[in-house]
What does this fold into?
Amino acid sequence: MKIIVSVKQVPDTSGKVAVNPDGTLDRASMQAIINPDDLNAVEAALKLKDETGCKVVVVTMGPPPAAGMLRELMARGADEGVLVSAREFGGSDTYATSQILAAAISRIGVEKDDIVMCGRQAIDGDTAQVGPQIAEKLHLPQVTYAADIQKTGDTITVKRMLEDGYMTIKVKTPCLLTCIKELNTPRYMSVGGIFEAYGKPLQTFDYETLKDDALIDPTTIGLKGSPTNILTSFTPPLKGAGLMLNEGDDKANCEKLAGILAKKHII
Amino acid sequence: MSFNNTDIAAFKDVWVFCEQRQGKLMPTDFELISEGRKLADELGVDLCGLLLGDKVEGLAKELGGYGADKVYVCESPMLKNYTTDGYTTAICQVIEELKPEVMLFGASNIGRDLGPRCAARLHTGLCADCTHLDVDMPIYKDFLREASTLAPEKIEGLNTAMVLGEKHDVSRDLKMTRPAFGGHLMASIICPRFRPAMATVRPGVMKKNPFDQAKADACQIVKPAFTITEDDVQTEVVEIVKAAKKLVDLIGADFIVSVGRGIGKDVAGGIKLAEELAAELGGVVGGSRATIDSGWLSADHQVGQTGKTVHPKVYIALGISGAIQHKAGMQDSECIIAVNKNDTAPIFEIADYGICGDLFKVAPMLTEAVRAAKAAK
Amino acid sequence: MDFHLSNEQLMLRKMYREFAETEVKPLAEEIDEEERFPMETVEKMAKLGMMGIYFPKEYGGAGGDVLSYAMCVEELAKVCGTTAVIVSAHTSLCCAPIFENGTEEQKQKYLPDLLSGKKIGAFGLTEPGAGTDASGQQTTAVLEGDHYVLNGSKCFITNGNVADTFVVLAMTDKKAGNHGISAFIVERDFPGFSQGKHEKKMGIRGSSTCDLIFEDCIVPKENLLGKEGKGFKIAMQTLDGGRIGIAAQALGLAEGAIDETVKYTKERVQFGKRLSQFQNTQFQLADMHCRTQAAQYLVYAAACKKQLHEDYSMDAAMAKLFAAETASDVTRRAVQLFGGYGYTREYPVERMMRDAKITEIYEGTSEVQRMVISGHLGVK
It folds into this structure.
């Protein structure tokens, strides 16, 4: 049995983010981190590895520095890493990315008792699309928003969160699960694990490696393979100095404030 | 893929997937129908709801009251509870047959499970978690002028976009604007080469139209053909559980209403007003060090250097002066609102909005104003 | 001369830093306030291999190197001086002498539990009459058949109340002076062995510090560590290694104080300006950082020399001397830059200043370090 976890290295968008004078984001101001939801997915895989002795393979599509992230995951206990990286893959939207990752996972091999795990969404794209789209391309059943995972034999029972409660869903392997932060607390790298990390196998899949997969050809990857395009992007106007409300009386001030909050979709 | 979805001209109408859970429509459905109405009018086409479930036909007319011209209803016992496979199968069959040009879903936990799967099966583009949708170019440009720092020339030049090296006219494309990078960046996305253009839309953002009974009565109900078998559905729903909202703690709270020394003249009253405002916002109550030291609130409410560091969407400071050790605990809140009798209180230096006044008068008015603003949405 | 850290060391630093920020920092104020030993943190550190970093896997260690261990103590000390010294005393003063001097049987018996953090270690050399003058040992160990009988007491023993395994020095031959001192491995529940009351201190208040009391304490013959009469040498070598740990602790305290001060001075406004905009603040922090960085090079160089089994005794002494005096200086300046708020217990710098002082005293006072350094220089 093995668990394949799809992970992404992302800029840390949760802290202060600097904006360039031309309105674009200063990407260098954000540290590269492992996408938080993906860490929950890796932890779920490692927990199952602790219980069953299964293999954990981590796969990522990204530029060469993403290999460092795979090593950190190996330091936590992942057994193998796969870096999917090629110039040809650049510019892919979620659809094209999912195709490429599906092809890579296919090449790693999905057996009858395997599970594919993803984080629910990445904190840069914030789309939550790649997991379900990989599942569709691999013809695997999916269960998303997993807050609890139990495996008995070939059946996985998932507590699948809704906004106002949850669904308990049963699915057979092979399947794809997307994980949320309520699922578990990711473990740290261990000292021993760090010293083992660089000895574990890490493969790179490039265009040559994947081009024979049915999902991959020049029209299905990169910009050509992306049904969506970015028309324009912009940063919201910077927070100016604070506004003292002085409409005359308290009631008017409160109504004005509530109106501002409503307009900004804060309430 | 069994249908040619690059033949753009063959696709017509705006569709909205209307989610129902246990036979009840989700509030976001009415928001989306209202928004869809606007888009359909701009495109000059029909607005259609898409409703899946078991014995749910009776829900359909209500969607007409918010602006749907017709509602496609797909009924089957197999669609009673949401399953990814069941709903994706039915929706994709119907889309392939009837070819809408736009397909909207609410970005609920279910919408974000369903939308991507459908988009992948149909080989089309999906834009997630949209907060703004536009077709009409002048209106879209007005939106950009207000919401962005883009240069006017740049905005003017957006009538066309380069798509795979060729100029493409975006005037009939759905412009889907949504936050990325944790909200630090907004992107407008188009799906120029494929149909339907799909989007999941953030709940609570689009404005709901007023309900019109005449429109509801006029709404057509259509039952398109589709087939779904047990083999199509690979997951089993064992149970659906509604859970009580769990207590939110300061660290995870989106809204915090904090009190300070300013409540001193009526501690119990001041805390009550803070609780009411917090409840209206769906948040929790915090306190400055002074309130904890005086025993007015327990230590787990403390925000500050000693105490918790919080990053809520909204932090309302009632009667708090804003000394540095309090600021340290809340200065990274997205929106800071301060109410203080003293207009030179340091808290106003970091507040986004300030009201100089008596918190005992202002807080209840603010609670009422928030309640009214929410109801008007 | 390669001043670059290896991939593994960079990853370790990342992990230590994350662990310190998330698990250790939130408790630092409380354990100082309550003088509480953070056992829960020790358990977490044990699970991650932090209680046996530079020992080989065959004995249950993590298979790392000395610099990796020094970096661990450094990162912990940035947020909590107490937690840092727990790891340092355990690793350098108990695990190390057993590893370096123990028989195979002793290593197999004691190291697995110590290196996995299941058991905590401590070191008993200091006595009421034997501090800097370590040779003034009064505790005696008399061989009686198959065991030694120990009598006497030790004081100021770090980890004393929580340790299970102790490396203890005692006189086996009063007439032979330093050559009459021997080292023993003592277990907590040996008959006649007890611990004294927790010592209240100026700083590292959560660190367990107490007397060890030997009243006809029975220690099996097999627990003699090294040969009879070799104890003083073992103690001195052990302290050499321990000095790297304490130097790392001092280094971390200085670095943590600088981080807090930079943050605070960018927020605090007086005379209409941020404190960070005043040249005094800028120049002070420049000096503080420069000295601390120099300390780091000394600490890391000593660690690397020990790793290569080169003679590192003077390097360890220099590192500890310089880092400790830097820590005291830097933390004092930090409190001054904070002003009144820095003197209150709401902010961590006063604790860092209190914690820093002991680094100039224990495991060889700064005066002792000067003796070691001048001795190596041949100045006599």
